[in-house]
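Q: Hi! First time asking for a complex rather than a single chain. Here are the components, and I think there are two in total. Is that enough to go on?
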Amino acid sequence: MIGQMIAAIIGTVAFCVLFSVPRRYILLGGITGGAGWAVYLLASRGLGYGTSILIAAAAVVFLSRILAVRFHCPSPVFMITGLFPLVPGAGVYWTTYYIVLGDLSMAAQSGYDAIKASVAIVLGIVFIFELPQVIFAKLGGIGKRSC
Amino acid sequence: MDRIIYEEIDNDAVMDLALQAGHILLQSGAEIFRVEETMERICGHFGVQSEHVFVLSNGIFFTGGGEREHVFAKVEHIPVSGIHMDRIIAVNQLSRDIENGKYTIEEAVRKLEQIRQMPEKRKMVRVLAAGAGSAGFCFMFGGDIRDSVCAFAAGLLMYLFMVYVAEKHISRIVSNILGAAIVTVVCTAAVKLGLAAHMNYMVIGSIMPLIPGVAFVNAIRDIADGDYLSGAVRMLDAMLGFVCIAIGAGIAMVLIH
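A: Yes, that's all I need. Here is the structure of the assembled complex.
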């Protein structure tokens, strides 16, 4: 699991570079992505696929909003790259794979999973963005030098 | 005295400044509400009150003027030209600094020009980043070290094609299809040559740089903010991306089998 988390961080950091995230935010973006994938892996031990993605997406958005307050920058900087490991690219691939193999029931299953993951990410983003800014202002201020 | 100073403010210049800030934000892949908020913030600070701004996913409609203010109206068509988080951060910071009174209009115009000139990442850096991302995501989804090395090569070759050929000459739909096909062919070749074992994880990792994640997340944000029209357009853009990737991979698989 540690290996997968590090891989998630490397992948996310690479995507930060691809999207021209400034150098001082790149590692933070990577950590957001790694944390999201770790939450997903932990959640998926006991919960279903959709629920695990929902919890992981919510965790990524929550962390992004805290970091946005802490480092004075827009939350999408962390959020977009952090959500990348959860976006159902794999689901799209498996759907295609099974269609080509002619296994339509597996294809339908993979496609359904991909849609489930998309809806879970939508819900994760929407719910966490409804939370009032006060919470994040408090959390983001923890341990900060007063100036 | 205050009143005279207030009326001396050139609202054409203010509104042009706001429009340019919005232009850079939208072009760099910001959400609709951020563009609107930034433009209104800049106008508000410099005392322009009559502005109306309407932002779509690829255009800004901006008018102002009335009894006391000069009439200003502009429509700009703004195609998205790749994601530039650094520019979004810089314009966001600038608008907050303007609000805190740190910039005059002329200084802000000059600062915006600097932001517009921010250097692009070099092409080879982007290609290497795409390779590294492919390798990372390949391992993350369950591949082993050898798979990741091959995914690095596949992602690298695919992005070389995207940056040096597709960006200039080919439409997005076709370049996504071709990119996914290249990945599938390279990964199949690696498996046939005995370099790596798990074709599926390699392809999944290497198509990640093509996945329209930014459009997808922005679409959700826009719809959640009530910007249904732009959200729907961006969602369509994302879905089209997913479908093209699937088509590309599928065509390559059918041809190989």
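A: DSSP finds eleven helices and three strands in chain B. Let me know if you'd like any chain examined more closely.
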